[in-house]
Specification:
Number of strands of chain A: 11
Distance between the termini of chain A: 36 Å
Order of helices and strands of chain A: EEEEEEEEEEE
Helix content of chain A: under 10%
Largest sheet of chain A: 7 strands, mixed
Shape of chain B: globular
Oligomer: heterodimer
Radius of gyration of chain A: 13 Å
Number of helices of chain A: 0
Structural class of chain A: mainly beta
Largest interface: A-B, 18 and 16 residues
Shape of chain A: globular
Distance between the termini of chain B: 41 Å
């Protein structure tokens, strides 16, 4: 079982560039999440999707957009990357507990 | 709003020492409680969870946690740590249909 698959694993962007982080789960879960993890800050919720076709803001949504393309896929887009968005990003889906992807390490220069 | 506080940012122990990581939460209603672990270079995985019933919960790898409702606490314990327990540990809560709120994490370093 693949579980939650995230791509890419690493990315370096210049300030102002855009990119999309992809996430897919094969567990037929309704709920999916995007978190960012920063040292000393724990995990902070960016956006979540309780079901296909719905998305909601989390704790730190500014500068991000999301798309719940179908039940499997939940993408996170940075339209104009900023150095403050340098972080590790985790996608997760929920089925009694959170199943996490392996993370994307993003650096914005 | 719900919040989670983890008391220690860094803990250093020798192998075979006992471990207790503190977690307190604030929320007026019924909560579900979780401990997640993140080993170096890996993603988070669930250690244990409490929804209801016996307040002493046993998880994987010899970890356990006790829910003390009167203290709003859910401390994580292990009688004897191993080098392989070196990781970052996150306490988290949710309530009803709310999303998970994570604490800021505790980095545990176990020296051989």
């Amino acid at each position: 079982n693949a579980g939650v698959t995230q791509t890419p694993k690493f990315q370096v962007l210049k300030t102002g560039q855009s990119m999309t982080l992809q996430c897919a789960q094969d567990m037929n879960h309704n709920s999916m999440y995007w978190y960012r993890q920063d040292p000393g800050m724990g995990l902070r919720l960016i956006y979540y999707s309780a079901s296909e076709g719905t998305t909601d803001k989390g704790e730190v949504p500014n500068g991000y957009n999301v798309s719940r393309l179908n039940k499997r896929e939940f993408s996170l887009r940075l339209e104009s990357a900023a150095p403050s968005q340098t972080s590790v990003y985790f996608c997760a889906s929920e089925g009694g507990k959170l199943f996490f992807g392996s993370g994307t390490q993003l650096s914005v220069l | 709003a719900q919040s989670v506080s983890q008391h220690n940012h860094h803990v250093i122990l020798s192998e075979a020492a006992s471990l207790e990581l503190g977690c307190n939460y604030s929320y007026g209603g019924t909560v579900n409680l979780f401990w997640y672990v993140q080993y170096p270079g890996q993603h988070l995985q669930l250690l244990l969870k409490y929804f209801s019933g016996d307040p002493l919960v046993k998880g994987i790898k010899g970890f356990e946690a006790e829910f003390i409702k009167s203290k709003f606490s859910f401390n994580l314990r292990k009688p004897s740590v191993q080098w392989s327990d070196t990781a970052e540990y996150f306490c988290a809560i949710n309530s009803g249909y709310s999303t998970l709120t994570f604490g800021k994490g505790t980095m545990l370093l176990v020296s051989p």
